[in-house]
């Protein structure tokens, strides 16, 4: 099997597993988010339009950002561009960025230590490196066209 195809297949499998885990962890029940309630007071007439009052109540389901605690830095070295898949918060929910110019670097702050996931595949050789608290904890080099994986 083509090594490049195998690498892309591996990235896709990890991304699908991470999304599935995220749905399981977050408990998505499949229902749409509640729509905001809107009340309109006043009726327009054909002869003149009286002033109207519009009141809207919008509820937010977002959670506040987690306090910073563990600085995590992801890096990919190489030339050209690469596809990057990484865990942004240590909880296994991955992000994917396509055709990022190399070298690439992402600095994050996690609330607690978590799973490290950084995968990179470029047209040439790629090296991934993960630093936590200023200390390199994972590094790997790939052959041209293959995936460099820093996972723990």
Q: How do the strands and helices of this protein lay out in sequence?
A:
Blueprint: H1 3-26, E1 37-41, E2 53-57, E3 70-77, E4 81-87, E5 94-101, E6 104-110, E7 117-122, E8 127-132, E9 135-141, E10 147-151
Please explain how this structure is put together.
This protein is of the alpha+beta class. 16% of the residues lie in helices and 42% in strands. The chain is built from one helix and ten strands. The protein has one helix at 3-26; strands spanning 37-41, 53-57, 70-77, 81-87, 94-101, 104-110, 117-122, 127-132, 135-141, 147-151. Strands 6-3-8-9 form a four-stranded antiparallel beta sheet, with no helix packed on it. A four-stranded antiparallel beta sheet has the order 5-4-7-10, covered by helices on one side. Strand 4 and strand 5 form a beta hairpin. The longest helix has 24 residues, at 3-26. The model is unreliable at 53-67 (pLDDT under 50).
Number of helical stretches of at least 4 residues: 1
Q: What structural class do helix, strand and pairing data support?
A: alpha+beta
Mean pLDDT: 73
Shape: globular
Major sheet summary line: 4 strands, antiparallel
Low-pLDDT segments:
53-67
User: Helicity range of the residues?
Assistant: 10-25%
């Amino acid at each position: 099997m083509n090594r490049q195809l195998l690498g892309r297949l591996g990235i896709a499998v990890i991304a699908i597993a991470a999304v599935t885990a995220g749905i399981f962890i977050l408990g998505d029940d499949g229902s749409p988010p509640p729509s905001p309630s809107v009340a309109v007071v006043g009726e327009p007439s054909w002869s003149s339009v009286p002033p109207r009052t519009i009141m809207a109540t919008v509820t937010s389901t977002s959670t506040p950002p987690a306090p910073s605690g563990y600085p995590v830095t992801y890096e990919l070295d190489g030339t050209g561009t690469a596809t990057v898949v990484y865990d942004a918060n240590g909880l296994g929910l991955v992000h994917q960025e396509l055709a990022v110019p190399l070298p690439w670097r992402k600095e994050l702050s996690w609330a607690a230590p978590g799973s490290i996931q950084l995968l990179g595949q470029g047209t040439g050789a790629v090296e991934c490196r993960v630093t936590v608290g200023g200390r390199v904890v994972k590094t790997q080099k790939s052959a041209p066209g293959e995936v460099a994986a820093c996972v723990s």
